[in-house]
Design brief:
Number of helices: 8
CATH class of the largest domain: Alpha Beta
CATH topology of the largest domain: Rossmann fold
Radius of gyration: 21 Å
Structural class: alpha/beta
Distance between the termini: 9 Å
Number of domains: 2
Order of helices and strands: EHEEHEEHEHEHEHEHEEHEE
Largest sheet: 7 strands, mixed
Strand order of the largest sheet: 7-6-5-8-9-10-11
């Protein structure tokens, strides 16, 4: 949970080579600007010798922070430690497009969580290759775009999506059971800002009817995987996974019903952590700083 702080809060996330003095330097930078640390997480990865850090901070007097000035002033310190970093206003809402086909459960879950303030999102539009879920988007007063996809129109459909992302300044695209494979070019253009929910524990039980495959194999757990989209199908860096115990007495349909629950939970957590700037890339993996 985000701690209470009476004034404006900012979030700094960073990754850099693991050397002594990083925490001291960041804390000194904030103290020199009359800021106090509200929340801090860090992780040192011995495999890559990389240091990761997320700091939430505000002014000691609860006053406003000039985020752009802070970014400019932080550049000297980031250059010194060879950091990749991001500094944002914690209250800034991520502008999101949700893509979906005909399964409504993940879309409905994200729309509901956003409507009650659980997710700090501004859902700009729901995009679908089918018209079926337009009424659901309408119920939450979210714009609905039907962009049909066929082998002949796939490139045009992706051009329409990219135009929407650019014109609406979209921060994040969420594939909430969007049953189309994105082109390599689109994956590259959305790198680091597109999250997919996969209806199994990757890399097992790929392809169609995964819960039925799992049922046929007598598995004891089913699950779902939320990951960043890359050109390597279903191989993107994993953000979150959720599991649920099942047994021989359950039907394949019951597997699927429980599977919908774990898909919703895994995707919602991944979207929340991304929107709170808690997810930092680490090669083919991610570090989630909670």
């Amino acid at each position: 949970m985000t701690p209470h702080w009476p004034g404006q809060r900012c979030i700094l996330t960073l990754a850099c080579p693991d050397v002594p003095g990083i925490v001291h330097a960041v804390a000194g930078f904030l103290v020199a600007r009359q800021c106090t640390i509200v929340e801090s997480q860090q992780f040192e990865d011995p495999d890559s010798a990389t240091f990761f850090m997320r700091v939430q901070f505000g002014r000691v007097d609860g006053g406003r922070l000039d985020v752009e000035t802070l970014r400019q002033e932080f550049t000297a310190l980031s250059d010194r430690f060879q950091m990749s970093w991001r500094l944002v206003d914690a209250t800034e809402r991520q502008r999101v497009v949700i893509m979906v086909s005909r399964f409504a459960h993940c879309l409905n879950d994200l729309l509901f969580r956003t409507s009650i303030g659980e997710l700090n999102l501004d859902i700009v539009a729901v995009v679908s290759n089918h018209p079926d879920l337009g009424r659901l988007a309408d119920a939450y007063q979210v714009a609905f775009r039907h962009i049909p996809v066929t082998p002949e129109t796939k490139q045009y459909a992706e051009t329409q999506l990219l135009d929407l992302v650019r014109t609406e300044r979209i921060d994040l695209v969420v594939l909430a059971r969007y049953m189309q494979i994105l082109s390599d070019d689109l994956c590259k253009q959305l790198e680091g800002r597109a999250i997919n929910i996969h209806h199994s524990m990757l890399p097992s039980f790929k392809g169609a009817r995964p819960y039925h495959q799992a049922h046929a194999r007598g598995v004891k757990f089913i699950g779902a995987t939320a990951h960043y989209v890359t050109a390597d199908l279903d191989e993107g860096p994993i953000i979150e996974q959720e599991t649920l115990r099942v047994d021989h007495s359950m039907s394949a349909e019951e597997f699927a019903a429980h599977g919908r629950e774990v898909e919703c939970r895994a995707l919602a957590r991944a979207v929340r952590w991304h929107s709170e700037n808690r997810v930092v890339p680490n090669g083919s993996k991610t570090v989630v700083l909670q």
